[in-house]
Design a protein that fits this description.
By secondary structure, the protein is an all-alpha fold. It is about 50% helix and about 0% strand. The mean pLDDT is about 90.
Length: about 100
C-alpha cells in the first residue's frame, strides 16, 4: 500500500505529459500536483474498500473538471457512467457506489 490511488496519480501524470512538465517546471509542475490532489480527494471521499473502476471513473471525471476549470479546456465525460464490472468485485459497495447500475438514468 503506497498511501495513494494509482488512478489519481495517473491523472497528474496525464496533465504533466500534456503540459510537458518537468521537476524543474514551475506552474505546470504545480498544476499537475494539484490535479493529483483533487483526484485523491475525490477518491478518498468515496471511501473503500478498493475498487479500481470506481477510483478510475472518479479520477477521470475530476480530471476533466479540473482541465476545464484550471486550463479553460473542458474535456467531455459522459454523465452516464455505469459500472459493468461489479459482479467481478466481491468488495463492491453496490448501491453505495455512484457508478452502480441502479444509479444511472
Amino acid at each position: 500500500m503506497a498511501g495513494c490511488c494509482g488512478a489519481a496519480v495517473s491523472a497528474g501524470i496525464f496533465l504533466s505529459v500534456v503540459l510537458k512538465a518537468t521537476p524543474m517546471s514551475k506552474e505546470s509542475w504545480a498544476l499537475s500536483n494539484r490535479m493529483t490532489s483533487c483526484c485523491l480527494d475525490a477518491v478518498s471521499r468515496l471511501g473503500g474498500p478498493r475498487c479500481c473502476k470506481r477510483d478510475s471513473y472518479t479520477s477521470i471525471i475530476t480530471a476533466a473538471d479540473f482541465c476545464g476549470r484550471e486550463l479553460g479546456k473542458p474535456l467531455y465525460v459522459s454523465d452516464r457512467i455505469s459500472c459493468r464490472h461489479y459482479m467481478e468485485n466481491t468488495e463492491c459497495l453496490k448501491t453505495e457506489c455512484p457508478y452502480f447500475p441502479l444509479h444511472t438514468h
